[in-house]
Amino acid sequence: MKIEVKKITGGYGKKIVCRDISFELSSGEVICVAGPNGSGKSTLFRLMLRFNPLLTGDILFDGRSLTEMSQKELAKFLAYIPQNHNPVFAYSVLEVVLMGRANHFSAFSVPKSVDEQVAISCLRRLGIEQLARQNYTELSGGQRQLVMIARAMAQEAQVLIMDEPASSLDYANSQIVLEAVMDLRDEGYAVLMSTHSMDTPFSCADKVLLLQEGRVRAFGQPLETLTPENLEEVYGLPMDVVEVHDRFDRPRHLCMPVRR
Amino acid sequence: MKMKLESFWHDHWRGAIVALAILAVAVCTISLAIGFYSLSFSDVFTYVFSPITGNTDYAYLTPTVVHNIRLPRILSAMMIGAALSVSGCAYQGMFRNPLVSPDVLGVSSAAGAGAATAITLGWSSLGVQAAAFVSGTVMVFLAVAIARRSHHNQTLALVLTGIMIGSLCNAVTTWLKYIADPNESLAEITFWLMGSLIKVDMYAVKLAIWPMLIGFILIWLMRYRLNILVLDDEEAISMGVNIRRDRTLVIIAATLLSAAAVCLGGLIGWVGLMIPHICRAIVGADYRKLIPVSALLGGIFLVLVDDLARSMMIMEIPIGILTSLVGAPFFIMLILKKRKI
Protein backbone atom coordinates (compact mmCIF):
# COMPACT_ATOMS: atom_id res chain seq x y z
CA MET A 1 0.00 0.00 0.00
CA LYS A 2 1.51 3.25 -1.09
CA ILE A 3 0.07 6.73 -1.43
CA GLU A 4 1.81 9.28 -3.59
CA VAL A 5 0.64 12.85 -3.16
CA LYS A 6 1.83 14.74 -6.21
CA LYS A 7 1.93 18.52 -6.24
CA ILE A 8 -1.63 19.02 -5.07
CA THR A 9 -3.19 22.45 -4.84
CA GLY A 10 -6.61 23.27 -3.50
CA GLY A 11 -8.68 25.01 -0.88
CA TYR A 12 -12.16 26.39 -0.40
CA GLY A 13 -13.71 27.58 -3.65
CA LYS A 14 -11.39 30.18 -5.10
CA LYS A 15 -9.41 30.57 -1.90
CA ILE A 16 -6.33 28.40 -2.29
CA VAL A 17 -4.96 27.08 0.99
CA CYS A 18 -2.61 24.26 0.01
CA ARG A 19 -0.07 24.73 -2.76
CA ASP A 20 2.13 22.19 -4.49
CA ILE A 21 2.15 19.67 -1.66
CA SER A 22 3.98 16.42 -2.38
CA PHE A 23 4.87 13.49 -0.14
CA GLU A 24 4.63 9.71 0.05
CA LEU A 25 3.14 7.42 2.64
CA SER A 26 3.53 3.64 2.85
CA SER A 27 2.13 0.83 4.99
CA GLY A 28 3.61 0.61 8.47
CA GLU A 29 4.46 4.28 8.55
CA VAL A 30 3.24 7.16 10.73
CA ILE A 31 3.52 10.62 9.31
CA CYS A 32 2.84 13.62 11.54
CA VAL A 33 1.62 16.74 9.82
CA ALA A 34 2.85 19.74 11.77
CA GLY A 35 2.55 23.46 11.34
CA PRO A 36 0.82 26.43 12.93
CA ASN A 37 -2.92 27.13 12.68
CA GLY A 38 -3.83 28.05 9.14
CA SER A 39 -0.83 26.30 7.63
CA GLY A 40 -3.12 23.91 5.73
CA LYS A 41 -3.10 20.72 7.81
CA SER A 42 -6.86 20.21 7.84
CA THR A 43 -7.23 21.38 4.26
CA LEU A 44 -4.66 18.82 3.14
CA PHE A 45 -6.77 16.12 4.77
CA ARG A 46 -9.93 17.49 3.18
CA LEU A 47 -8.29 17.37 -0.24
CA MET A 48 -7.12 13.81 0.28
CA LEU A 49 -10.56 12.69 1.48
CA ARG A 50 -12.12 14.59 -1.42
CA PHE A 51 -14.31 16.76 0.81
CA ASN A 52 -12.84 19.62 -1.23
CA PRO A 53 -11.83 19.26 -4.89
CA LEU A 54 -8.23 19.22 -6.10
CA LEU A 55 -7.42 22.16 -8.36
CA THR A 56 -4.18 20.74 -9.67
CA GLY A 57 -2.00 17.73 -8.93
CA ASP A 58 -3.04 14.17 -8.23
CA ILE A 59 -2.98 11.56 -5.52
CA LEU A 60 -2.12 7.98 -6.44
CA PHE A 61 -3.30 5.04 -4.35
CA ASP A 62 -1.15 2.04 -5.34
CA GLY A 63 -0.82 3.78 -8.68
CA ARG A 64 -4.53 4.55 -9.12
CA SER A 65 -5.51 8.17 -9.46
CA LEU A 66 -7.88 9.78 -6.96
CA THR A 67 -9.74 11.42 -9.82
CA GLU A 68 -10.88 8.12 -11.29
CA MET A 69 -12.07 6.59 -8.03
CA SER A 70 -15.60 6.63 -6.67
CA GLN A 71 -16.16 7.73 -3.07
CA LYS A 72 -16.88 4.12 -2.23
CA GLU A 73 -13.57 2.93 -3.67
CA LEU A 74 -11.73 5.73 -1.90
CA ALA A 75 -13.25 4.57 1.40
CA LYS A 76 -11.49 1.25 0.87
CA PHE A 77 -8.15 3.06 1.01
CA LEU A 78 -8.76 5.91 3.42
CA ALA A 79 -10.57 6.07 6.74
CA TYR A 80 -11.10 9.37 8.49
CA ILE A 81 -11.01 9.76 12.25
CA PRO A 82 -12.53 13.11 13.17
CA GLN A 83 -11.28 15.12 16.11
CA ASN A 84 -14.65 15.56 17.72
CA HIS A 85 -17.54 13.28 17.14
CA ASN A 86 -20.50 14.57 19.08
CA PRO A 87 -23.37 12.19 18.73
CA VAL A 88 -26.90 13.48 19.21
CA PHE A 89 -28.38 10.11 20.03
CA ALA A 90 -27.14 7.53 22.50
CA TYR A 91 -25.73 4.81 20.26
CA SER A 92 -23.91 1.94 21.93
CA VAL A 93 -20.18 1.53 21.24
CA LEU A 94 -20.78 -1.58 19.16
CA GLU A 95 -23.37 0.24 17.05
CA VAL A 96 -20.92 3.10 16.43
CA VAL A 97 -18.14 0.73 15.35
CA LEU A 98 -20.56 -1.22 13.17
CA MET A 99 -21.26 1.97 11.21
CA GLY A 100 -17.73 1.68 9.83
CA ARG A 101 -19.02 -1.30 7.84
CA ALA A 102 -21.49 0.87 5.89
CA ASN A 103 -19.25 0.57 2.87
CA HIS A 104 -19.57 -3.20 2.83
CA PHE A 105 -23.29 -3.51 2.14
CA SER A 106 -25.84 -1.56 0.13
CA ALA A 107 -28.03 1.28 1.38
CA PHE A 108 -31.02 -1.07 1.33
CA SER A 109 -29.38 -3.77 3.41
CA VAL A 110 -28.45 -4.33 7.04
CA PRO A 111 -25.16 -5.53 8.55
CA LYS A 112 -24.71 -9.30 8.61
CA SER A 113 -23.33 -11.22 11.57
CA VAL A 114 -19.96 -11.17 9.77
CA ASP A 115 -19.95 -7.39 10.04
CA GLU A 116 -20.74 -7.60 13.72
CA GLN A 117 -17.85 -10.05 14.19
CA VAL A 118 -15.46 -7.64 12.47
CA ALA A 119 -16.66 -4.79 14.69
CA ILE A 120 -16.14 -6.84 17.83
CA SER A 121 -12.68 -7.97 16.72
CA CYS A 122 -11.68 -4.33 16.09
CA LEU A 123 -12.70 -3.48 19.64
CA ARG A 124 -10.75 -6.48 20.88
CA ARG A 125 -7.61 -5.48 19.00
CA LEU A 126 -7.74 -2.12 20.75
CA GLY A 127 -8.44 -3.77 24.10
CA ILE A 128 -11.79 -2.05 24.61
CA GLU A 129 -14.10 -5.01 24.06
CA GLN A 130 -15.65 -4.46 27.47
CA LEU A 131 -17.09 -1.13 26.29
CA ALA A 132 -19.13 -2.74 23.51
CA ARG A 133 -22.51 -2.36 25.14
CA GLN A 134 -21.92 0.98 26.83
CA ASN A 135 -23.38 4.15 25.44
CA TYR A 136 -20.90 6.06 23.34
CA THR A 137 -22.19 9.31 24.85
CA GLU A 138 -21.13 8.20 28.32
CA LEU A 139 -17.48 7.52 27.44
CA SER A 140 -14.44 9.63 28.29
CA GLY A 141 -12.69 11.57 25.53
CA GLY A 142 -9.89 9.02 25.23
CA GLN A 143 -12.29 6.10 25.03
CA ARG A 144 -14.30 7.90 22.38
CA GLN A 145 -11.18 8.42 20.32
CA LEU A 146 -10.37 4.72 20.59
CA VAL A 147 -13.90 3.87 19.47
CA MET A 148 -13.47 6.16 16.47
CA ILE A 149 -10.23 4.31 15.66
CA ALA A 150 -12.09 0.99 15.95
CA ARG A 151 -14.72 2.31 13.56
CA ALA A 152 -12.03 3.24 11.05
CA MET A 153 -10.51 -0.24 11.40
CA ALA A 154 -13.92 -1.81 10.78
CA GLN A 155 -14.01 0.10 7.51
CA GLU A 156 -11.00 -2.01 6.49
CA ALA A 157 -9.09 0.86 4.97
CA GLN A 158 -5.32 0.64 5.11
CA VAL A 159 -4.68 4.33 5.65
CA LEU A 160 -6.00 6.21 8.68
CA ILE A 161 -6.28 9.98 8.59
CA MET A 162 -6.47 11.42 12.09
CA ASP A 163 -7.27 15.03 12.77
CA GLU A 164 -5.38 15.97 15.95
CA PRO A 165 -6.26 12.73 17.71
CA ALA A 166 -4.80 13.69 21.06
CA SER A 167 -5.32 17.42 21.24
CA SER A 168 -8.48 17.57 23.31
CA LEU A 169 -7.46 14.80 25.68
CA ASP A 170 -5.74 14.89 29.04
CA TYR A 171 -2.16 13.67 29.33
CA ALA A 172 -2.82 10.01 30.18
CA ASN A 173 -5.58 9.64 27.61
CA SER A 174 -3.51 11.18 24.86
CA GLN A 175 -0.73 8.69 25.65
CA ILE A 176 -3.24 5.81 25.40
CA VAL A 177 -4.41 7.04 22.00
CA LEU A 178 -0.84 7.50 20.74
CA GLU A 179 0.05 4.00 21.94
CA ALA A 180 -2.90 2.71 19.93
CA VAL A 181 -1.64 4.59 16.88
CA MET A 182 1.76 2.92 17.18
CA ASP A 183 0.16 -0.50 17.57
CA LEU A 184 -1.75 0.17 14.36
CA ARG A 185 1.48 1.02 12.60
CA ASP A 186 2.97 -2.26 13.80
CA GLU A 187 -0.08 -4.05 12.38
CA GLY A 188 0.74 -2.53 9.00
CA TYR A 189 -1.58 0.46 8.84
CA ALA A 190 -0.35 3.73 7.41
CA VAL A 191 -1.27 6.68 9.61
CA LEU A 192 -1.37 10.33 8.70
CA MET A 193 -2.09 12.55 11.69
CA SER A 194 -1.98 16.22 12.37
CA THR A 195 -0.61 17.45 15.65
CA HIS A 196 0.09 20.61 17.56
CA SER A 197 2.42 18.90 19.97
CA MET A 198 6.08 19.10 18.97
CA ASP A 199 6.96 16.10 21.11
CA THR A 200 4.53 13.65 19.52
CA PRO A 201 6.47 13.45 16.22
CA PHE A 202 9.69 12.57 18.05
CA SER A 203 8.04 9.79 20.02
CA CYS A 204 5.85 8.19 17.42
CA ALA A 205 6.31 9.48 13.89
CA ASP A 206 8.49 7.96 11.22
CA LYS A 207 8.33 11.12 9.20
CA VAL A 208 7.15 14.66 9.63
CA LEU A 209 5.48 16.86 7.05
CA LEU A 210 6.10 20.42 8.20
CA LEU A 211 3.74 22.90 6.58
CA GLN A 212 4.11 26.63 6.35
CA GLU A 213 1.45 28.82 4.77
CA GLY A 214 0.10 25.95 2.73
CA ARG A 215 3.47 24.79 1.38
CA VAL A 216 5.79 22.01 2.45
CA ARG A 217 8.57 23.52 4.49
CA ALA A 218 10.28 20.20 5.15
CA PHE A 219 9.52 16.50 4.82
CA GLY A 220 11.54 13.64 6.27
CA GLN A 221 12.72 12.06 9.51
CA PRO A 222 11.67 14.01 12.63
CA LEU A 223 15.23 14.98 13.50
CA GLU A 224 15.90 16.25 9.99
CA THR A 225 12.62 18.12 9.72
CA LEU A 226 12.05 19.61 13.13
CA THR A 227 15.34 21.45 13.36
CA PRO A 228 15.61 24.60 15.45
CA GLU A 229 16.04 26.60 12.23
CA ASN A 230 12.92 25.19 10.57
CA LEU A 231 10.86 25.54 13.72
CA GLU A 232 11.90 29.13 14.29
CA GLU A 233 11.14 29.93 10.66
CA VAL A 234 7.67 28.29 10.76
CA TYR A 235 6.49 29.28 14.23
CA GLY A 236 8.39 32.52 14.61
CA LEU A 237 9.72 31.40 17.97
CA PRO A 238 13.25 30.41 18.94
CA MET A 239 13.15 26.71 19.75
CA ASP A 240 15.59 24.07 20.83
CA VAL A 241 15.53 20.35 20.17
CA VAL A 242 17.25 18.50 22.98
CA GLU A 243 18.14 14.87 23.53
CA VAL A 244 17.11 13.34 26.84
CA HIS A 245 17.25 9.84 28.29
CA ASP A 246 14.47 8.01 30.05
CA ARG A 247 14.99 5.79 33.12
CA PHE A 248 16.11 2.92 30.91
CA ASP A 249 18.66 5.21 29.32
CA ARG A 250 16.83 5.19 26.01
CA PRO A 251 17.40 8.39 24.09
CA ARG A 252 14.54 10.54 22.87
CA HIS A 253 14.08 14.09 21.73
CA LEU A 254 12.06 16.95 23.08
CA CYS A 255 11.28 20.29 21.58
CA MET A 256 11.01 23.43 23.65
CA PRO A 257 10.77 27.14 23.15
CA VAL A 258 13.72 29.20 24.32
CA ARG A 259 13.04 32.25 26.44
CA ARG A 260 15.01 35.24 25.37
CA MET B 1 -34.42 -0.70 36.48
CA LYS B 2 -33.74 1.42 33.43
CA MET B 3 -30.57 -0.51 32.73
CA LYS B 4 -32.43 -3.81 33.07
CA LEU B 5 -35.18 -2.71 30.72
CA GLU B 6 -32.63 -1.60 28.16
CA SER B 7 -30.66 -4.83 28.19
CA PHE B 8 -33.93 -6.78 28.05
CA TRP B 9 -34.78 -4.96 24.84
CA HIS B 10 -31.30 -5.48 23.56
CA ASP B 11 -31.57 -9.24 23.87
CA HIS B 12 -35.19 -9.74 22.99
CA TRP B 13 -36.10 -6.98 20.60
CA ARG B 14 -37.31 -9.25 17.82
CA GLY B 15 -39.68 -11.01 20.18
CA ALA B 16 -40.76 -7.67 21.60
CA ILE B 17 -41.67 -6.43 18.14
CA VAL B 18 -43.86 -9.48 17.59
CA ALA B 19 -45.46 -8.86 21.00
CA LEU B 20 -46.13 -5.23 20.07
CA ALA B 21 -47.69 -6.32 16.78
CA ILE B 22 -50.02 -8.69 18.63
CA LEU B 23 -50.86 -5.89 21.06
CA ALA B 24 -51.66 -3.62 18.12
CA VAL B 25 -54.13 -6.14 16.68
CA ALA B 26 -55.69 -6.61 20.13
CA VAL B 27 -56.07 -2.88 20.70
CA CYS B 28 -57.71 -2.48 17.29
CA THR B 29 -60.14 -5.32 17.93
CA ILE B 30 -61.12 -4.00 21.35
CA SER B 31 -61.49 -0.49 19.93
CA LEU B 32 -64.18 -1.82 17.57
CA ALA B 33 -66.44 -2.05 20.61
CA ILE B 34 -65.87 1.55 21.71
CA GLY B 35 -67.97 4.45 20.50
CA PHE B 36 -71.28 6.29 20.45
CA TYR B 37 -73.44 3.40 19.33
CA SER B 38 -73.09 0.83 22.06
CA LEU B 39 -71.93 -2.56 20.91
CA SER B 40 -70.86 -5.12 23.47
CA PHE B 41 -67.47 -6.81 23.26
CA SER B 42 -69.17 -10.13 22.73
CA ASP B 43 -71.08 -8.74 19.73
CA VAL B 44 -67.84 -7.51 18.22
CA PHE B 45 -65.89 -10.71 18.87
CA THR B 46 -68.70 -12.91 17.66
CA TYR B 47 -68.90 -10.86 14.49
CA VAL B 48 -65.12 -10.71 13.93
CA PHE B 49 -64.74 -14.46 14.33
CA SER B 50 -68.00 -15.42 12.60
CA PRO B 51 -66.27 -16.36 9.31
CA ILE B 52 -64.35 -19.00 11.29
CA THR B 53 -66.94 -20.09 13.84
CA GLY B 54 -70.05 -19.67 11.68
CA ASN B 55 -71.75 -18.10 14.70
CA THR B 56 -73.91 -15.13 13.62
CA ASP B 57 -75.43 -14.38 16.99
CA TYR B 58 -74.56 -10.66 17.20
CA ALA B 59 -76.53 -7.42 17.37
CA TYR B 60 -78.30 -6.52 14.16
CA LEU B 61 -76.32 -3.36 13.39
CA THR B 62 -72.89 -4.78 14.24
CA PRO B 63 -71.67 -5.29 10.63
CA THR B 64 -72.70 -1.79 9.60
CA VAL B 65 -71.14 -0.05 12.58
CA VAL B 66 -67.95 -2.08 12.41
CA HIS B 67 -67.45 -1.84 8.67
CA ASN B 68 -68.64 1.61 7.80
CA ILE B 69 -67.77 3.59 10.87
CA ARG B 70 -65.30 2.04 13.26
CA LEU B 71 -62.98 -0.05 11.11
CA PRO B 72 -61.97 2.83 8.80
CA ARG B 73 -61.36 5.05 11.81
CA ILE B 74 -59.27 2.53 13.66
CA LEU B 75 -57.32 1.62 10.56
CA SER B 76 -56.65 5.24 9.75
CA ALA B 77 -55.63 6.01 13.35
CA MET B 78 -53.20 3.07 13.18
CA MET B 79 -51.82 4.16 9.83
CA ILE B 80 -51.52 7.84 10.77
CA GLY B 81 -49.88 7.09 14.11
CA ALA B 82 -47.38 4.76 12.49
CA ALA B 83 -46.67 7.06 9.56
CA LEU B 84 -46.14 10.17 11.68
CA SER B 85 -43.91 8.33 14.14
CA VAL B 86 -41.76 6.76 11.45
CA SER B 87 -41.32 9.96 9.50
CA GLY B 88 -40.59 11.79 12.76
CA CYS B 89 -37.88 9.22 13.53
CA ALA B 90 -36.36 9.61 10.10
CA TYR B 91 -36.36 13.41 10.17
CA GLN B 92 -34.95 13.58 13.71
CA GLY B 93 -32.01 11.45 12.67
CA MET B 94 -31.40 13.18 9.39
CA PHE B 95 -31.40 16.63 10.96
CA ARG B 96 -29.47 15.35 13.98
CA ASN B 97 -32.02 17.05 16.16
CA PRO B 98 -34.34 15.28 18.57
CA LEU B 99 -36.77 18.22 18.51
CA VAL B 100 -37.65 17.86 14.86
CA SER B 101 -41.13 16.68 13.93
CA PRO B 102 -42.51 15.33 10.63
CA ASP B 103 -43.54 18.81 9.53
CA VAL B 104 -40.01 20.26 9.80
CA LEU B 105 -39.93 20.77 6.03
CA GLY B 106 -43.33 22.42 6.02
CA VAL B 107 -45.37 19.45 4.88
CA SER B 108 -48.26 20.17 7.29
CA SER B 109 -48.47 23.84 6.45
CA ALA B 110 -48.33 23.07 2.74
CA ALA B 111 -50.97 20.37 3.02
CA GLY B 112 -53.10 22.77 5.09
CA ALA B 113 -52.83 25.45 2.43
CA GLY B 114 -53.76 22.94 -0.25
CA ALA B 115 -56.76 21.74 1.72
CA ALA B 116 -57.90 25.28 2.51
CA THR B 117 -57.68 26.20 -1.19
CA ALA B 118 -59.69 23.14 -2.19
CA ILE B 119 -62.35 23.87 0.45
CA THR B 120 -62.63 27.48 -0.69
CA LEU B 121 -63.06 26.30 -4.27
CA GLY B 122 -65.85 24.04 -3.06
CA TRP B 123 -64.20 20.72 -3.99
CA SER B 124 -65.47 17.42 -2.70
CA SER B 125 -63.83 15.85 0.33
CA LEU B 126 -61.84 13.57 -1.98
CA GLY B 127 -60.63 16.67 -3.84
CA VAL B 128 -59.62 18.27 -0.55
CA GLN B 129 -57.59 15.22 0.38
CA ALA B 130 -55.90 15.07 -2.99
CA ALA B 131 -55.10 18.79 -2.87
CA ALA B 132 -53.61 18.43 0.62
CA PHE B 133 -51.45 15.51 -0.45
CA VAL B 134 -50.24 17.07 -3.67
CA SER B 135 -49.44 20.44 -2.16
CA GLY B 136 -47.72 18.81 0.85
CA THR B 137 -45.39 16.71 -1.28
CA VAL B 138 -44.77 19.31 -3.98
CA MET B 139 -43.79 21.99 -1.46
CA VAL B 140 -41.33 19.71 0.32
CA PHE B 141 -39.68 18.73 -2.95
CA LEU B 142 -39.53 22.43 -3.82
CA ALA B 143 -37.71 23.02 -0.52
CA VAL B 144 -35.31 20.18 -1.31
CA ALA B 145 -34.66 21.49 -4.82
CA ILE B 146 -33.94 24.98 -3.51
CA ALA B 147 -31.69 23.70 -0.72
CA ARG B 148 -29.63 21.60 -3.14
CA ARG B 149 -28.45 24.80 -4.76
CA SER B 150 -26.70 25.78 -1.54
CA HIS B 151 -22.99 25.03 -1.56
CA HIS B 152 -22.59 25.26 2.17
CA ASN B 153 -24.50 23.47 4.89
CA GLN B 154 -27.16 21.49 3.06
CA THR B 155 -29.01 20.46 6.20
CA LEU B 156 -29.27 24.01 7.46
CA ALA B 157 -30.35 25.23 4.03
CA LEU B 158 -33.03 22.54 3.95
CA VAL B 159 -34.46 23.45 7.36
CA LEU B 160 -34.46 27.16 6.58
CA THR B 161 -36.13 26.65 3.20
CA GLY B 162 -38.69 24.39 4.87
CA ILE B 163 -39.49 27.08 7.43
CA MET B 164 -39.82 29.71 4.68
CA ILE B 165 -42.13 27.59 2.56
CA GLY B 166 -44.11 26.65 5.65
CA SER B 167 -44.67 30.27 6.60
CA LEU B 168 -45.58 31.13 3.01
CA CYS B 169 -48.22 28.40 3.08
CA ASN B 170 -49.49 29.51 6.48
CA ALA B 171 -49.96 32.99 5.07
CA VAL B 172 -52.06 31.57 2.25
CA THR B 173 -54.15 29.56 4.71
CA THR B 174 -54.69 32.55 6.99
CA TRP B 175 -55.71 34.70 4.04
CA LEU B 176 -58.16 32.05 2.84
CA LYS B 177 -59.63 31.85 6.34
CA TYR B 178 -59.95 35.64 6.38
CA ILE B 179 -61.92 35.77 3.14
CA ALA B 180 -63.85 32.54 3.74
CA ASP B 181 -67.60 32.41 4.26
CA PRO B 182 -67.92 32.25 8.06
CA ASN B 183 -70.96 29.99 7.90
CA GLU B 184 -69.56 27.32 5.63
CA SER B 185 -66.03 27.16 4.34
CA LEU B 186 -64.44 28.88 7.37
CA ALA B 187 -65.83 26.23 9.71
CA GLU B 188 -64.71 23.50 7.38
CA ILE B 189 -61.17 24.89 7.05
CA THR B 190 -60.85 25.31 10.82
CA PHE B 191 -62.17 21.82 11.36
CA TRP B 192 -59.72 20.36 8.86
CA LEU B 193 -56.79 22.17 10.42
CA MET B 194 -57.71 20.86 13.87
CA GLY B 195 -57.09 17.29 12.85
CA SER B 196 -59.94 14.85 13.12
CA LEU B 197 -60.87 11.36 12.06
CA ILE B 198 -64.62 11.97 12.08
CA LYS B 199 -64.91 12.04 8.30
CA VAL B 200 -62.70 9.16 7.27
CA ASP B 201 -64.26 6.30 5.36
CA MET B 202 -62.94 3.11 3.81
CA TYR B 203 -62.43 4.85 0.48
CA ALA B 204 -60.12 7.46 2.00
CA VAL B 205 -58.17 4.73 3.79
CA LYS B 206 -57.74 2.80 0.54
CA LEU B 207 -56.39 5.88 -1.17
CA ALA B 208 -53.97 6.91 1.58
CA ILE B 209 -52.54 3.46 2.06
CA TRP B 210 -50.56 3.50 -1.22
CA PRO B 211 -48.26 6.45 -0.60
CA MET B 212 -47.88 5.22 2.97
CA LEU B 213 -46.90 1.75 1.84
CA ILE B 214 -44.26 3.15 -0.50
CA GLY B 215 -42.92 5.33 2.32
CA PHE B 216 -42.90 2.50 4.85
CA ILE B 217 -41.18 0.06 2.51
CA LEU B 218 -38.50 2.56 1.49
CA ILE B 219 -37.74 3.51 5.08
CA TRP B 220 -37.81 -0.13 6.16
CA LEU B 221 -35.25 -0.98 3.49
CA MET B 222 -33.08 1.95 4.52
CA ARG B 223 -33.48 1.38 8.25
CA TYR B 224 -29.81 0.71 8.79
CA ARG B 225 -28.64 3.47 6.48
CA LEU B 226 -30.59 5.98 8.61
CA ASN B 227 -27.95 5.46 11.31
CA ILE B 228 -25.25 6.64 8.91
CA LEU B 229 -27.31 9.70 7.98
CA VAL B 230 -27.14 10.76 11.64
CA LEU B 231 -23.37 11.21 11.28
CA ASP B 232 -21.79 14.42 10.09
CA ASP B 233 -21.93 14.64 6.31
CA GLU B 234 -18.17 14.41 6.02
CA GLU B 235 -17.87 11.38 8.26
CA ALA B 236 -20.51 9.63 6.19
CA ILE B 237 -18.81 10.61 2.92
CA SER B 238 -15.46 9.35 4.19
CA MET B 239 -17.16 5.99 4.81
CA GLY B 240 -18.03 5.82 1.14
CA VAL B 241 -21.73 6.60 1.54
CA ASN B 242 -23.59 8.51 -1.16
CA ILE B 243 -25.18 10.77 1.38
CA ARG B 244 -26.98 13.05 -1.09
CA ARG B 245 -28.80 10.21 -2.77
CA ASP B 246 -29.64 8.45 0.48
CA ARG B 247 -30.87 11.61 2.14
CA THR B 248 -33.09 12.43 -0.84
CA LEU B 249 -34.59 8.93 -0.76
CA VAL B 250 -35.35 9.21 2.95
CA ILE B 251 -36.93 12.64 2.47
CA ILE B 252 -39.13 11.24 -0.31
CA ALA B 253 -40.23 8.35 1.90
CA ALA B 254 -40.82 10.48 5.01
CA THR B 255 -42.72 13.07 2.99
CA LEU B 256 -44.99 10.46 1.42
CA LEU B 257 -45.74 9.18 4.92
CA SER B 258 -46.45 12.51 6.54
CA ALA B 259 -48.35 13.96 3.59
CA ALA B 260 -50.57 10.89 3.39
CA ALA B 261 -51.12 11.05 7.16
CA VAL B 262 -52.04 14.73 7.02
CA CYS B 263 -54.43 14.32 4.11
CA LEU B 264 -56.20 11.49 5.92
CA GLY B 265 -56.55 13.05 9.35
CA GLY B 266 -55.65 16.72 9.14
CA LEU B 267 -53.02 18.25 11.38
CA ILE B 268 -52.42 15.84 14.23
CA GLY B 269 -49.49 17.18 16.22
CA TRP B 270 -47.08 15.71 18.74
CA VAL B 271 -47.26 12.06 17.71
CA GLY B 272 -44.30 12.36 15.34
CA LEU B 273 -42.24 14.12 17.98
CA MET B 274 -43.21 12.21 21.09
CA ILE B 275 -43.30 8.57 19.97
CA PRO B 276 -39.74 8.54 18.55
CA HIS B 277 -38.53 9.92 21.89
CA ILE B 278 -40.26 7.27 23.93
CA CYS B 279 -39.07 4.53 21.61
CA ARG B 280 -35.49 5.77 21.67
CA ALA B 281 -35.60 5.72 25.46
CA ILE B 282 -36.80 2.12 25.38
CA VAL B 283 -34.85 0.44 22.57
CA GLY B 284 -31.91 2.78 21.99
CA ALA B 285 -30.89 4.77 18.96
CA ASP B 286 -30.37 2.00 16.38
CA TYR B 287 -32.89 2.51 13.59
CA ARG B 288 -33.16 -1.22 12.95
CA LYS B 289 -35.12 -1.45 16.19
CA LEU B 290 -36.43 2.11 16.29
CA ILE B 291 -38.38 1.98 13.02
CA PRO B 292 -40.57 -1.08 13.70
CA VAL B 293 -41.06 -0.20 17.37
CA SER B 294 -42.11 3.38 16.71
CA ALA B 295 -44.41 2.36 13.86
CA LEU B 296 -46.25 -0.06 16.15
CA LEU B 297 -46.21 2.12 19.25
CA GLY B 298 -47.27 5.20 17.28
CA GLY B 299 -50.18 3.30 15.78
CA ILE B 300 -51.29 1.88 19.12
CA PHE B 301 -51.00 5.30 20.75
CA LEU B 302 -53.18 7.02 18.18
CA VAL B 303 -55.82 4.28 18.24
CA LEU B 304 -56.04 4.66 22.03
CA VAL B 305 -56.23 8.45 21.83
CA ASP B 306 -58.95 8.11 19.20
CA ASP B 307 -60.84 5.78 21.56
CA LEU B 308 -60.69 8.57 24.13
CA ALA B 309 -61.77 11.12 21.55
CA ARG B 310 -64.81 9.01 20.70
CA SER B 311 -65.87 8.07 24.17
CA MET B 312 -64.82 10.76 26.66
CA MET B 313 -67.70 13.12 26.00
CA ILE B 314 -71.05 12.91 24.26
CA MET B 315 -69.74 15.18 21.55
CA GLU B 316 -66.60 13.93 19.94
CA ILE B 317 -63.32 15.75 20.65
CA PRO B 318 -61.11 16.33 17.58
CA ILE B 319 -58.11 14.04 17.97
CA GLY B 320 -55.59 16.80 17.18
CA ILE B 321 -56.67 18.62 20.34
CA LEU B 322 -56.31 15.49 22.44
CA THR B 323 -52.84 14.61 21.20
CA SER B 324 -51.66 18.10 22.13
CA LEU B 325 -53.33 17.84 25.52
CA VAL B 326 -51.43 14.61 26.12
CA GLY B 327 -48.25 15.63 24.34
CA ALA B 328 -47.40 18.94 25.97
CA PRO B 329 -47.57 17.65 29.57
CA PHE B 330 -45.53 14.65 28.50
CA PHE B 331 -42.74 16.88 27.29
CA ILE B 332 -42.82 19.03 30.41
CA MET B 333 -42.56 15.84 32.42
CA LEU B 334 -39.61 14.72 30.34
CA ILE B 335 -37.77 17.96 31.02
CA LEU B 336 -38.54 17.91 34.74
CA LYS B 337 -37.64 14.28 35.18
CA LYS B 338 -34.54 13.86 33.06
CA ARG B 339 -33.54 17.53 33.13
CA LYS B 340 -32.60 17.12 29.54
CA ILE B 341 -34.29 16.45 26.26
Jot down its keywords:
heterodimer; A: 260 residues; 9 helices; B: mainly alpha; ABC transporter involved in vitamin B12 uptake, BtuC; 14 helices
Q: Can you offer a commentary on this structure?
A:
The complex is a heterodimer of chains A (260) and B (341). Chain A is of the alpha/beta class. In chain A, 32% of the residues lie in helices and 29% in strands. Chain A contains nine helices and twelve strands. In chain A, the strands form three sheets. A six-stranded mixed sheet of chain A has the order 6-7-8-3-9-10, sandwiched between helices. A four-stranded antiparallel sheet of chain A has the order 2-1-4-5, covered by helices on one side. In chain A, strand 4 (56-61) and strand 5 form a beta hairpin. The model of chain A has no long low-confidence stretch (mean pLDDT 92). The model of chain B has no long low-confidence stretch (mean pLDDT 87). Chain B is an all-alpha fold. Chain B has 14 helices and no strands. Chain B has one domain: ABC transporter involved in vitamin B12 uptake, BtuC (Orthogonal Bundle), CATH 1.10.3470. The interface between A and B is medium-sized, with 34 and 34 residues.
Summarize the structure.
The complex is a heterodimer of chains A (260) and B (341). Chain A is an alpha/beta fold and 260 residues long.
